[in-house]
Amino acid sequence: MNIRFSGFGGQGIILSGVILGWAAVLDGKNAIQTQSYGSSARGGSCKCDVIIQESAIYELEPEHNDILITFSQPSYNAFIKSLKEGGHLFYDSDLVTVDTNEFPCNSIPATDIAFKEFKQKIYANMLMLGFLAEKIRFIGFRAIEKSISQYVPTKTIEMNIAAFRMGIDLAK
Amino acid sequence: MNNQKYLDSLKNKTLFLQGDEAAAYGALFAGCNFFAGYPITPASEIAELMSRELPKSGGYYIQMEDEIASIGAVIGAVWSGGKSMTATSGPGFSLMQENIGYACMTESPCVIVDVQRSGPSTGQATKGAQGDVLQARWGTHGDHEMIALSPWSSQESFDLMIEAFNLSEKYRNPVIFLLDGEVGHIREKVVFPDINELNIYQRNISLEKIDVFGGQRIPPMIEFGMGQRIHVTGSTHKSNGMRDVSSMEAHDTLIRRIYDKISSNRNEIAHFETHYIDNMDYLAVSYGAAARPTMGAVLKLRERGIKIGFLRLITIWPFPIDICTELGKRTKKIFVPEMNLGQVSREIERFVNCPVESVSKIGGISHTIDEITNYISANI
Q1: How many helices (H) and strands (E) does chain B have?
Q2: How far apart are CA B283 and CA A129, in angstroms?
Q3: B188 and B286 inside one domain
Q4: Which of B16, B182, B185 sits opposite A25 (nearest CB)?
Q5: Which residues of A touch B185 (CB under 8 A)?
Q6: Can you give the pTM of this predicted structure?
């Protein structure tokens, strides 16, 4: 399964992919995570690919994705064509306007909810990860929570896991 | 914390690491205790991790003012007893070339990581490539041999870094660790071993007063501070280290020896991996990042009934000549996917009689399995 997280630098795009990739390994699967970014540190376009499968992974940069998660209009515009037929599109509904009805769309205003509920926009990525994990049940929640707690700063583990769980609830 | 305690704390751990990070941990397991470098994309993660972890294991990290100073400090540390390394990318690797030659000439064991990015010059700073393969071999001037290794995964990046240090110590030569931006930045599972189960080559140090620049093919070393006088120079020198820049014989003896110590051990240094070579009409040869989709393509082509074998080069220099020659006799055509315009494919051509076709891709995005599959299908 090929999953692409995309948005602007600083939205926690790459961290989402790292957490999901490591969770897949904890769940006993093979996973690789790759990322690409421009020369500018923040605000530039960035993407993060995660490949999860049972067999060995030889593809490094998949042309087509099963899941696209997008947090910005430019990244949606750039990557919507990479989504396979029958793929799943996830996006932040306040930040992205979708111009296709080809795919099952799953959206939440993650950034807005994060700001209202957790006082910081940065938790939007974990909200979206929870939302994704519940909609596409492919990795165990426990593995994802373990991965979150290993990758986010210690002081923010609780908040990140709370955001992840809220994402799960929003998908139900 | 000393190195043993530090490494015990990592024993049998499983982590999700980038190739860069895995290489840095591999260096720590190999006993690296000195790192000098200057950050550059896509190699900065190595410096970052070393700056954090090396002091914990009792080693020293220093950020130098540039790459020329970095490689200078690395070589200096070697002669003070350090197991030392640096990490850079193409532009920095170019700057280091003169002192890499100095390391060859002074037979200073050290590891230089080049996480290759698209060049020449600044090129595509954040994109991977495999364009420095020939520079690793011939970047510095004069006759010399070189050892260069190229891993294809994070786990191999870890394992091979230990081998890189071992080879550098055993042959008293710099070793180029040819990562690429792709493998350097992939995160995947890495399992650390138990340090007590690893073979770490210990530097051959002579406590007696003997010549350390000749007298035998790979002479032992002495180090500053051990009580003996020692002269280390990049000028042509006699076996006692003293300069002799006018005698043809002194130069001939020295250079042939430092050349032969590696070329005569080519088969011991040249690691590779083969798949399906017992039943093949065609052969794919690749290495580093490009070897991943090549392996995927070979599996796909065989599913379609095309008999293709796969040779993955792990050691690039000294070039694994014998296996190429042998396999070349048994195949109709060799395909070489690589992220440059044919640097290794041209090398293979020198040693085989069958046609060799480069499947090159540049621009910072690795081959896909389908691209290689389709190319080979259309050209057999």
Answers
A1: 14, 15
A2: 43
A3: no
A4: B16
A5: 34-35
A6: 0.96
Mean pLDDT for A116-123 is 95
Task: Round to whole Å and give the CA distance between B273 and B270.
Answer: 10
Last residue within a domain, chosen from B180, B197, B214:
B197
Q: What is the value of ipTM here, to two decimals?
A: 0.93
Nearest residue, CB atoms, A60 vs list B16, B41, B293: B293
Do B137 and B7 sit in the same domain of this protein?
A: yes
The Cβ of residue B242 has, within 10 Å, a number of other Cβ atoms equal to 12
Burial of A108 (0-12, 13-18, 19+ CB in 10 A): buried
Give the range of the structural domain holding residue B283, as residue numbers without chain letter: 273-379
Domain assignment present for B181: yes
Q: Indicate if B184 and B293 belong to the same structural domain.
A: no
Q: Which residues of A touch B338 (CB under 8 A)?
A: none
Strands (E) located in B100-224: 110-118, 124-128, 147-149, 174-180, 187-191
Report, in angstroms and rounded to the nearest whole number, the Rg of chain A calculated over CA atoms. 15
The CATH number that applies at residue B369 is 3.40.50.920
Is B370 among the domain residues? yes
pLDDT tens for each residue of A10-53: 899 999 999 999 999 999 999 999 987 666 555 677 899 999 99
CATH number at residue B94: 3.40.50.970
Cβ of A38 within 8 Å of Cβ of B126? The answer is yes
- Chain B CB contacts of A84 below 8 Å: none
Q: What does the pLDDT read at residue A63?
A: 86
The CA–CA distances, whole Å, from A105 to A92, A110, A123 equal 11, 14, 21
Provide residues of B within 8 Å CB-CB of chain A.
Answer: 14, 16, 41, 125-127, 182, 185-189, 289, 292-293, 295-296, 299, 365-366, 368-370
Give the residue on A whose Cα is nearest the Cα of B292.
A58
pLDDT value of residue B94: 98
Q: Is the model's pLDDT at B185 over the cut of 90?
A: yes
Instruction: Give the residue from B157, B182, B197 where a domain finishes.
Output: B197
Cβ contacts (< 8 Å) between B126 and chain A: which residues?
A: 36-39
On whether both B149 and B39 belong to a single domain, the answer is yes
- Going from the N-terminus, what domains does chain A have, and what CATH number goes with each? 2-108+132-149 (3.40.920.10)
- Chain A residue at shortest CA distance from B186: A34
Give the residue on A whose Cα is nearest the Cα of B188.
Answer: A32
Whether B232 is in a domain gets the answer: no
Residues B140 and B40 grouped into a single domain: yes
pLDDT tens string B209-247 = 889 999 999 999 998 988 888 899 999 999 999 999 999
Answer whether residue B41 is part of any domain: yes
Mean of pLDDT over chain B: 96
Query: What DSSP string runs through A95-119?
Result: T------SS-EEEE-HHHHHHHHHS
Say how many domains are in chain B: 2
Residue A125 class from Cβ within 10 Å (0-12 exposed, 13-18 middle, 19+ buried)?
buried
Q: What percent of chain B has pLDDT over 90?
A: 95
